Amino acid sequence: MDFSKIDKFMDDMPLRGVVGCELAVSVKGETVYRKCVGYADAEKTKPLSGKDISWIFSCSKVITCLTVMRLVEEGKISLDDPVSKYIPEFSDMFVYDKKTGVLSRAKNVMTVEHLFTMSAGLNYNINATPIKEAAEKEGATTLDVVRAMAKLPLDFEPGERYQYSLCHDVLAAVAEVASGMRFSDYMQKNVFDPLGIVDMGFRPNEAQTSRFCDQFNYSNGTNRSTYCGIKNRYILSPDYDSGGAGLFSTVDEYMKIITAIANGGKTKDGYSLLRPETIELLTVNRLCDRALDDLVKGRLFGYGWGLCGRVHRDAAASCSLAPIGEFGWDGAAGAFSMIDTRNNVALYFGTNTFGFTYGYNFVHPTLRNMVYEAIEL
């Protein structure tokens, strides 16, 4: 394996205006590449050490989907189940047509699969009045806030379009009802504890908070980063487990999970996170053609969306060296995850850079292809 090109690419990230970033790659369960570049703080006094913690934002979605698939595997949730089976407030939904201004009762039933695939008709308006009012009540739980989401009209008929949204937050609430446990507790018991994960979760303790990286806004025109604090606006209340964007993690803790999934769902000590046949369900596109048009907007050519984020479906269109079926997702602050079950490869790129269009369009796909060139599969 030759990682010299990746070393050079990573070493040049500060020249591209990125204050700090990390890359980890595993092949067949073993870490073959690990590098930290730059700093954890805006003053550039704390070099990244590999122990630093970040809000991972939408990279949380991968962990949430994998966790909820355990409940599917256990028979406690079916992909075909109506969401209303778990949260009755979603039983009588309306669709608002923005072009005509007409509000009409939804014809299609919203299912659990629609939540996984971002095709439920929801949006990402966390400032909508019902959501804010529910979240501001003392002791507001995940279910409390998600029930309020059902008061809002859908943007389209479930299953007919794709729209990035609060679907995975609702999915976490469904998991709470199905498991009879708070989502964070279920995740702790079935994912974190068995994998020896201590630096991932929804609510960091004081010691963990002291290890958080600073966050930055990125200018894609000048390739410069500006400090913007340490925050996660998707945590809607203190007791809210945001399945879509609420987790913090180190790079190495995240890698424990995706490395297990890339290797048939088992850890080195034999714990089964998911069965191989369950993982296979994650490697196929589940969007209709119209929904694919919604998804592919400037950067996801050749990809669809499955039960755990983007799914590679057309190598000629994507120019990706990853195999068909590679899947994963990214985050609002520029992180990127990839799982390849065909070659047992897992990749995680961590950074804390908002508005990082350059990252999504150039850095992520470049690193992905460089990894495949380096490991020479």
Outline the structure in words.
- The chain has a domain at 4-49 and 213-229 and 251-375: Beta-lactamase.
- The chain has 13 helices and 15 strands.
- The relative contact order is 0.18.
- The model has no long low-confidence stretch (mean pLDDT 97).
- The chain has 377 residues and is of the alpha+beta class.
- Helix 5 crosses helix 6 (167-179).
- The strands form five sheets. A four-stranded antiparallel β-sheet has the order 2-1-14-13, sandwiched between helices.
- 31% of the residues lie in helices and 17% in strands.
- Strand 7 and strand 8 form a beta hairpin.
Brief overview, please?
The chain contains 13 helices and 15 strands. It is α+β, with helices and mostly antiparallel strands.
Secondary-structure topology with pairs:
Layout: H1 4-11, E1 20-27, E2 30-38, E3 54-55, H2 60-73, E4 94-97, E5 102-105, H3 112-116, H4 129-136, H5 142-149, H6 167-179, H7 183-192, E6 200-201, H8 206-209, E7 215-219, E8 224-229, E9 248-249, H9 251-262, H10 276-280, H11 289-295, E10 303-305, E11 310-312, H12 315-318, E12 327-328, E13 336-340, E14 345-351, E15 353-354, H13 357-375
Parallel strand pairs: 7-15
Antiparallel strand pairs: 1-2, 1-14, 3-9, 4-5, 6-9, 7-8, 10-11, 11-12, 13-14
Helix pairs in contact: 1-13, 2-6, 4-5, 5-6
Q: Return the structural class.
A: alpha+beta
Task: Count every helix, treating DSSP H or I runs of 4 or more residues as helices.
Answer: 13
Q: What is the CA-CA span between the terminal residues?
A: 9 Å
What would CATH call the homologous superfamily of one domain? DD-peptidase/beta-lactamase superfamily
The biggest beta sheet, please?
A: 4 strands, antiparallel
> What is the 3D shape?
globular
Tell me roughly what share of residues is in helical segments. 25-40%
Rg over C-alpha atoms, rounded to the nearest angstrom:
20 Å
For the secondary structure, the number of strands is: 15
Give the spatial strand order of the biggest sheet.
Answer: 2-1-14-13
Q: Overall pLDDT, averaged?
A: 97
Could you tell me the strand content as a percent range?
15-25%
> Would you identify the regions where 5 or more consecutive residues have pLDDT less than 50?
none
CATH topology of one domain: Beta-lactamase
